[in-house]
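assembly run, all chains below
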Amino acid sequence: MKNFEEKMKSYVDYIEKELKNFNNYSHENRPQVKLIDAMNYSLRAGGKRLRPVLVHAFCEALGGMIEASSAPACAIEMVHTFSLIHDDLPAMDNDDFRRGKPSCHKAFGEAMAILAGDALAVLPFEIIADAQHLTPEQKVLIISVLANSVGRDGMIGGQVIDMENEKCDNVDEDNLRNLYRCKTGQLIAVSCVMGAICADADNETIRAAAEYGLRLGFAFQLIDDILDVTSTTEELGKPVGSDEASNKNTYVSLFGIEKAKEAADKATSEALEWLSAIRDNEFLVTLTEKLLKRKY
Amino acid sequence: MKNFEEKMKSYVDYIEKELKNFNNYSHENRPQVKLIDAMNYSLRAGGKRLRPVLVHAFCEALGGMIEASSAPACAIEMVHTFSLIHDDLPAMDNDDFRRGKPSCHKAFGEAMAILAGDALAVLPFEIIADAQHLTPEQKVLIISVLANSVGRDGMIGGQVIDMENEKCDNVDEDNLRNLYRCKTGQLIAVSCVMGAICADADNETIRAAAEYGLRLGFAFQLIDDILDVTSTTEELGKPVGSDEASNKNTYVSLFGIEKAKEAADKATSEALEWLSAIRDNEFLVTLTEKLLKRKY
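ok done. output:
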């Protein structure tokens, strides 16, 4: 796709601007301004913005206006950021760096990092409920699928499985696939689903978006695991080898890099097949192919 | 009111049953079952259930059916429980006990307590979005006011002000009133507001519910402060004198017990005045009066 990089840049620019609007603070002298600072510190630390890009890309591919997907796009990035802040805490993964910068608790202290994460877990639902370009029916459906993908059977459930696995000697492929589905797949899938809902897609199309997202999420997590072994700290912006150091069972540690690459290829092919149900899928096809080849 | 205790018991029984339903888990052998256990451990630790009782009482006082307020009532108790779990963490208030039992991180470890709190911060929005007896318009409004009362200008913002105040020598009454409004008042006010929305109340009535709740919340927090000084650990179910030990500025520490009692009386009187806008307010009037005289 000729204009892929341009389109990607325009999405990311739009997302950065909207994120600022949604967590702006008109009363800089309020006592809780440090909370906003901590939230913005982590929100503005960059990253690929993959999830909000997927929200917008699905909305536009299915004929929706980008304004309609603005709140859900920012919401999913807030959820993702909340999970990173809490993941990095000393009681969790105890990571001092995130995206090349001190992690939130290193910059603002542990208590403020807990609260900044909490606030970024709740604000997404407020901005969706208050969104301008969505009907009440769309908002309710989006909030339901978003909360579900974050909760017990989604991202948070996945983190618990991850923790339990560290104590376990016989983690098998089924367990790992379920873990990746919860921990990474659900948030990526719900990004696609929310975009489709914003475009008023029918149920069949929404299902295709979900199936695509789950496979993309699986491939994405596999590549994350591979890069944790093969990349450098500079390329990755976070310490490499952290999975091994923390005794994490990953697809790579259990089955080796080659098997992991094969599984990522297969999941990507399946993802591309599901994309055929999406009308103007050119940008999404290129994005999917590029994600398989990413180096960071 | 003759049947006050009976009515209160029926509300609390209903809430306990509904809380179980909303965080029940059909697949007990799933790997994330420990997360559900941790969530339920704190959810079922008891407490007064004041906030969900207010949701139901406002809904019924304004002619709504109790089923309509079921999801918002459980949602507010989940939010309250999430805040207690995170508040008790070592990086926050570092409390080993809550309601006479080991706090969540003492029973399940710090990482699981963080995740259980996170899950209880998100589940409320899912159960409201999926509620059976509310219209999409009611759900969107409830989610908007609930998220707002939890976030930057609500409960979480209040906790940040509380932390900042500990480093501060010149906390004045305005600061403290703002703190109490954020930290305690907003969640109590939104309980009343959600109940009114469930009953399809008009805007004027919703406003009366909010004004009542803010004043009740202020009185409630003042009495909490007073009991922290005058009660015993057995009566309170948590260590007394914890405010002084942690160097917290409270209305009591700044202005003395007598001034605090006067302020609680005044706030309660104002709360009762706002209740005159609520149709069948008998239960709520008795509840308000009893809360002023509580010993735990």
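Chain B touches chain A through 56 residues (CB under 8 Å).

The longest helix of chain B spans residues 203-230.

not gonna interpret more than that til we talk
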